[in-house]
Amino acid sequence: MIVIAVSFEAKPDKVAEFKALISEHARRSLTEEPGCLQFDVAQDPKDEKKFFLYEVYKDEAAFEFHRGTPRMAENGKIIPNLVTSRVLSIYRMLPGEKPQR
User: Fold this and answer.
1) Is residue 58 within a helix (H) or strand (E), and if so which, with residue range?
2) Nearest Cα to 82, choosing from 6, 26, 11?
3) What are the Cα distances from residue 94, in Å, to 7, 12, 39, 62, 97?
């Protein structure tokens, strides 16, 4: 399994817009992509501009499918205007581990 961790900092005046966009993106990833096993969106309670995404995909093919969706292309054009930073990390799940649902 592939694990994706992404940290974002939204622009102060774009927090609500980013939150709505990324929450819908997570929901659609889970409902429209069979290979998306988990997609959690968290917001820092002490700094509403900071968000953390935790995603789990069945395998590399499922992650590549996710990256190739029209939704990703569209969001890829919108998100840079909503955030000041984005840090992406990609991991492999250890053998025997399972995503939490």
Assistant:
1) none
2) 11
3) 22, 37, 18, 17, 6
pTM: 0.90
Structural contact between residues 75 and 32, judged by C-beta atoms closer than 8 angstroms: no
Cβ atoms of residues 12 and 21 within 8 Å: no
| Distance between first and last Cα of the chain | 15
Tens of pLDDT, residue by residue over 14-47, are 999 999 999 999 999 999 999 999 999 999 999 9
Cβ–Cβ under 8 Å, residues 11 and 84: yes
CB 79 within 8 A of CB 24: no
